[in-house]
């Protein structure tokens, strides 16, 4: 009698574990598109009871569906500025000036300095050619681009939208945040696609995330960012977000769940 009782309970326990394993696998697949999180943020590995339940569970709802927390869009390092998200008019930051006259938000300066030091320690010569811009700076650049396009044959109606693909409309430039930098190789200082072949860009594309920076406008994300491929423009988002975006391959809009609808 005792042997029969043991066999029944053992069979229940076996069925219970098998079901939990199957349900657990399905839940893991369903959660695949979520941003990668560090192991410390993962939900507890198991919520199963060690006691065999009176009936074998068949509902997926018995498994925890806890999701990793969404990125905090209001955080200073994750502020989204793009063609659809203007900088507030009362936006203010405290700047730190670099030795070459460039300036950045003081909060990203230590990590920027570390990144530049490491790049130079690798035997390379990075040059920061653009950083913080005021609204007036951005208006000058944008209007200048419009005028050059008109000189090339674009109409006055076409030129502004064409210019906006290359130079952000004033109020929508990340450079106004003080968190964006244009970095080039001393041996090749033109801002065009060939910049990606320089040793500095290869190093930055591989290592910038370690210092909290991302290549902001990758070649395959222009439809989402609204900006052409820029293999020289880096944006500070902080080390945690940069690591997660590097792992997932997401651009900032995707990471923040703010992809424009067509
Ligand atoms: Zn830039």
Report on this model:
The protein is α+β, with helices and mostly antiparallel strands and 262 residues long. It folds into two domains: 2-62, no CATH class; 76-133 and 173-256, Muramoyl-pentapeptide Carboxypeptidase, domain 2 (2-Layer Sandwich). It is built from eight helices and six strands. It has helices spanning 2-30, 109-121, 135-151, 158-164, 199-207, 222-225, 239-248, 252-256; strands at 95-97, 103-105, 126-130, 180-185, 213-215, 233-236. The strands form two sheets. It has a four-stranded antiparallel β-sheet with strand order 3-4-6-5. It has a two-stranded antiparallel ribbon with strand order 1-2. It is globular, with a radius of gyration of 25 Å.
Helix content: 25-40%
Average pLDDT metric: 81
CATH architecture of the largest domain: 2-Layer Sandwich
The CATH topology label of the largest domain is: Muramoyl-pentapeptide Carboxypeptidase, domain 2
CATH class of the largest domain: Alpha Beta
Our count of domains comes out at 2
Give the number of helices.
8
> In which order are the strands of the major sheet placed?
3-4-6-5
Shape: globular
Strand content: 5-15%
> Which structural class fits the helix and strand makeup?
alpha+beta
What are the low-pLDDT stretches, counting only 5+ consecutive residues below 50? 1-63
